[in-house]
Amino acid sequence: MRWGVAVTISVSEKINAPRERVWTLITDPDSWAENISGIKSVEVLEKPASGFVGLKWREKREFFGKEATETMWVTSAETGHWYETNALNHGMAYTTRVSVAELGDGTTLTMTFDAKPTTLVARLMTPISMMFNGAVRKALQQDLGDIKAAAEKP
User: Fold this and answer.
1) How many structural domains does the chain have?
2) Which residues form the domain of 147?
3) Is residue 2 assigned to a domain?
4) In a domain, 1, yes or no
5) What is the block-wise mean pLDDT of the chain (154 residues), using blocks of 10 residues?
6) What is the value of pTM for the model shown?
7) DSSP 1
């Protein structure tokens, strides 16, 4: 294991709903806390005049039995297909890409999460933080499962 390297985790879910429905759910911050069990609240801090790029929000989650708050923002997007968010916290830079693709009569939803240390302390802690990869993967998979359930509701 190399110290201070980025960690990438990717998960996907097949959803029996049209891509447009899934896209609407994953780009509507007002519905995230209602539809994703891991999110306790969302506070929109900045909303772009048009489109999705530039949206900035503060998200509260429960992680390992404690409340965690992250401020995230959308840095790039291709409407109807994918968007990327960034966050900075505890010496780490986080990038998440959320994408939707048509798959027959349904949709594949994929989340790819990257964490890269940006400080010496974070680089030194990389071996310890690698132990949390399974928990992060499980949380991402739960988010996708929750979105699937919301998208497949009649």
Assistant:
1) 1
2) 7-151
3) no
4) no
5) 68 97 97 96 96 96 85 97 94 93 95 86 61 82 98 94
6) 0.88
7) -
